[in-house]
Design brief:
With about 250 residues, the chain is an alpha/beta fold. It is about 45% helix and about 15% strand. Helix 4 packs parallel to helix 5.
Length: about 250
């Protein structure tokens, strides 16, 4: 089936991580040119090199998405080397877990800045071009943590805010044929998660509580992103898709 993204240009933030790389592979597999954007230049280049080895048009872009000028430079590089950005996947983010009474202000600020301000900067950088061309697809990677997790007031509130931002932006951008949707992953078996000392305990608990008794994979998240940016979702916007095995 033609997913309608062949020849499109996609920019994925957090492209050096497991979910970012899986998303880049899914998009490139359907013929999109892709840019791996990450604050870790080596990780971004490793992702792009892997994709190029598989025959994709892929570049690496390094920079801090919380810095407006870094984002502007990144988008300019993508446009110069691949073309105007048609698809933006705001995937960059991380958690710094601690109970609120013990949480440093820095831990609150950096989580919100990356997840919310970073998404703000990236959307602002690509939206004018999308509006002019009357086409765009934006997917924000939230988390099931938006429902609230103890020890994650910073992360949960940022991910919940991202869903609100998605709904608002969908209404602003819709008249320009731009869709904006969110994906909310549950527990995903990334290398970072697998490296935790309590991984086996987390996995067992997830299997016991999840209707589909396994951990999610980065590819599960990538498939949801692919749906939202494809021709199958031309009339779908302002939606949040939970990728959680039914949990």
């Amino acid at each position: 089936m033609d997913m309608g993204i062949a020849g499109k240009v996609a920019l994925v933030t957090g492209g050096g991580g497991a979910i970012g790389l899986a998303t880049l592979k899914a998009l490139a597999g359907e013929g999109a040119a892709v840019a791996a954007y990450d604050i870790n230049a080596e990780a971004a280049e490793a992702a792009a090199a892997q994709l190029r080895d598989q025959g994709a048009r892929a570049i690496a872009v390094a920079g801090d998405i919380t810095v407006k000028d870094d984002v502007a430079r990144a988008v300019s590089k993508v446009e110069a080397e691949l073309g105007p950005v048609d698809i933006l996947v705001n995937n960059a983010g991380f958690s710094r877990d601690r109970y609120l009474t013990k949480m440093a202000e820095e831990d609150w600020d950096i989580v919100h800045n990356v997840i919310l301000k970073g998404t703000f900067h990236c959307c602002r950088a690509v939206l004018p071009g999308m509006m002019t061309r009357q086409f765009g697809r934006i997917v924000n990677i939230s988390s099931m943590a938006y429902m609230g997790n103890a020890g994650q007031t910073n992360y949960s509130s940022a991910k919940a805010g991202l869903i609100g931002m998605t709904a608002a932006l969908a209404r602003e951008a819709g008249p320009f044929n731009i869709t904006c949707n969110a994906v909310a992953p549950g527990l995903i078996a990334t290398p970072r998660l697998r490296s935790r000392s309590d991984f086996e305990k987390l996995e067992a608990r997830s299997r016991a509580l999840t209707p589909l008794p396994r951990l999610g994979l980065p590819e599960d998240v990538a498939s949801a992103v692919l749906f939202f940016v494809s021709s199958l979702a031309q009339f779908v916007t302002a939606q949040t898709l939970n990728v959680s095995g039914g949990r």
